[in-house]
Amino acid sequence: MLRIGVIGTGMIGQDHIRRMTHVLAGVRVTAVTDVNASVAEAVGARIGATVHATGEEVIADSSVDAVVVCSWGPTHEQYVLAAIAAGKPVFCEKPLATTAEACLRIVEAEAAHGRRLVQVGYMRRYDSAYRELKKILDAGDIGAPLMMHCAHRNARVPSHYEKEMAITDTAVHEIDMVRWMFGTEIKAARVLVPRKNRNGGELQDPLFLILEMANEVLVDVEISVNIRYGYDIRGEIVGEHGTASLGSLSPVRVRTSLRAADPVPADWRERFLAAYDVEFQEWIDSLARTGAPVGPSAWDGYAAAVVSDAAVAALHSGSAENVELAEQPKLYSEVTA
Ligand code: NAI
Ligand code: ISE
């Protein structure tokens, strides 16, 4: 039984605690913390976990074998570094850290440790539709890929959401997904700015991100975060003699009053419910098997941060910005999920 300490018991922290407590096998949450002590107390009481005052105490707790970090992005670096220093596996929600420099510090600390401990929460790699798309692509069914069209639509976002977050918080999922899908790095990014959606007030929304892959595949991502009708994730790969796209998620189609309708998820919890379950179960199983994770690595977290920095620079400059990665430590040339 893998014993988990969770740092950050907000929205996704509580959702992951629910799945580790009620859905998945071989795992138990034994310790929690949150800067909002009353939330941590309530969550801890619900599942019978020890409530600590700080993340560092959770990491040091001898009843904690592995750590899950679900606090705000700017706090991730300190907890991931502390977990590496303690030699404990750590699952960190995206982003790994909020700057490329901080991600590189994590990569360097893990490389110096000499063994993988870190996994980053890029759950699209575990979604059955994306996995099927990759299988079709890798089998050559649509020929060599030329382009991919993506849309990442949120119904609404909180009031602290700023225009750069459309890239660093939202499109960062597509940034990771296309690196995995095409098995190659992104070499440049540019951003086009369409007419503003009035649902977003002053926020510059939507944005149109273009990514150039090292193999010349071109990816476009529409990022709309105030589209109101629901949470809609789209992706279509255009190959030399066919296309493959994410299908409708609903097993049922309703036809009534001269209309046919598919339900649309409300948010990421609903759309990626099964993907998060698979992501965590595979993480737990890999730790039980070998003590090391095999999913998205600290290097993947670093690469996503460098690309999102380039995309933010492109948003401000209006031009294409190149992506320059540091030299990859040998630890990360192993295959990841
Ligand atoms: P949230 O604001 O609902 O929860 C974050 C919690 O962390 C809050 O309860 C806050 O009090 C706590 N916290 C902040 N600093 C802390 C610290 N130093 N120590 C302990 N607790 C601390 O935010 P949400 O939506 O749960 O997001 C958390 C993380 O998960 C973010 O990095 C976000 O990007 C990521 N996320 C990932 C998603 C995915 O699809 N993979 C979906 C939503 C969020
Ligand atoms: C959120 O943090 C996530 O990671 C969701 O998957 C994404 O759709 C949303 O835009 C982000 O704010």
Structure, described:
- The protein is of the alpha/beta class.
- Helix content is 38%, strand content 22%.
- It has ten helices and 15 strands.
- The chain has a seven-stranded mixed sheet with strand order 12-11-7-10-9-8-15.
- Strand 9 and strand 10 (218-224) form a beta hairpin.
- Helix 4 runs parallel beside helix 5 and helix 7 (165-182) packs across helix 10 (298-317).
- The longest helix is centred in the last third of the chain and has 20 residues, at 298-317.
- The radius of gyration is 20 Å and the shape is globular.
- 1,4-dihydronicotinamide adenine dinucleotide binds at residues 7-13, 33-36, 39, 55, 70-73, 75, 93-94, 121, 123, 169, 268.
Characteristic key phrases:
binds 1,4-dihydronicotinamide adenine dinucleotide; six-stranded parallel β-sheet; globular; 22% strand; seven-stranded mixed β-sheet; alpha/beta; 337 residues
Shape: globular
- Structural class, from secondary structure content? alpha/beta
Gyration radius, in Å? 20 Å
Query: Helical segment tally?
Result: 10
Order of the strands making up the biggest sheet: 12-11-7-10-9-8-15
- CA-to-CA gap between the ends? 23 Å
Spell out the helices and strands N to C. Answer: EHEHEHEHEHEHEHEEEEEEEHHHE
Question: Would you identify the regions where 5 or more consecutive residues have pLDDT less than 50?
Answer: none
Amount of helix: 25-40%
Mean pLDDT: 96
Biggest sheet: strands, sense, closure? 7 strands, mixed
Number of strands: 15
Hetero groups in this structure are: 1,4-dihydronicotinamide adenine dinucleotide, (2R,3S,4s,5R,6S)-2,3,4,5,6-pentahydroxycyclohexanone
Proportion in β-strands: 15-25%
